[in-house]
Design a protein that fits this description.
This protein has 232 residues and is α+β, with helices and mostly antiparallel strands. The protein has one domain. Helices cover 37% and strands 16% of the residues. A seven-stranded antiparallel sheet has the order 2-1-5-4-3-6-7, sandwiched between helices. The longest helix has 28 residues. The radius of gyration is 18 Å and the shape is globular. About 3% of the residues have low confidence.
Length: 232
């Protein structure tokens, strides 16, 4: 690797890491519930177009270890548009317990090619956040009901859009809020997660990447190519 490539790789690492950290700061500062605001029960991370983790903030390992599967599950909603956000909590698709709700949104290169009908070409990556919602329905208030079946734990959300091209999908939000005990607080915490998604996408849509990549595209591969020869 040349000196310039090494320098650009260092910038790339800082770019994706700082984006994840800034997502977390946005989520914590704008949330309503003590679970997120005070307990910091959330995690944020950046992924490449294939769902491989590129960077994660110093949040909660159990969230971050499973999150790539949720990102890949959400990717099935393609084609994507700018401003889209998917939501899910299905434990069979990379979720943890049901109160941990994940949001996933695509990242596009600022000058990337457009597809038909206003859609964009394949995303160059994804950003994701997972936050512990204080109530997600179920047989009892709180996060740990005495349950023998998944359905007793609360509402199971498959990958669906909660934002489409920057506009709320009111049907998705209404379905969730109708099935929880604290809808106003959930609305606020969902809005905080969406704000974090926007921050992550905005930070990553432009920026240098090694070996001529645009934005974060190619950055993960370049880093892998640099670290693999150094492995024992």
């Amino acid at each position: 690797m040349s000196e310039i490539d090494a320098a650009r790789l260092a910038i790339f690492d800082s770019l994706v890491s700082s984006a994840a950290e800034e997502m977390g700061a946005t989520l914590r500062h704008t949330a309503l519930s003590p679970n997120i605001k005070e307990r910091a029960d959330f995690s944020c991370a950046v992924f490449d177009a294939d769902g491989q983790a590129l960077a994660q903030a110093a949040h909660i390992p159990v969230h971050l270890g499973a999150m790539p599967e949720s990102v890949r599950a959400a990717a099935s909603l393609a084609p994507w548009a700018e401003g889209d956000v998917a939501v899910l909590n299905d434990p069979y698709l990379g979720g943890t317990h049901l109160p941990d709700v994940t949001m996933v949104s695509p990242v596009f290169a600022a000058d990337g090619p457009r597809a038909s009908r206003g859609r964009r070409a394949r995303p160059i990556g994804f950003v994701a956040s997972r936050a512990h919602q204080a109530d997600i329905g179920g047989s009892a208030p709180g996060s740990m009901p005495v349950a023998r079946e998944l359905i007793q734990e609360g509402l199971v959300i498959p990958p669906v859009r909660i934002m489409r091209a920057g506009e709320p999908v009111e049907e998705t939000l209404a379905l969730v809020l109708r099935n929880v005990r604290t809808p106003d607080e959930r609305r606020g915490d969902f809005a905080a997660q969406i704000a974090a998604q926007r921050v992550g996408g905005a930070r990553l849509g432009v920026g240098p990447a090694p070996r001529g990549g645009r934005g974060i595209s190619g950055g993960g591969a370049a880093r892998g190519g640099h670290t693999q020869p150094a492995a024992p």
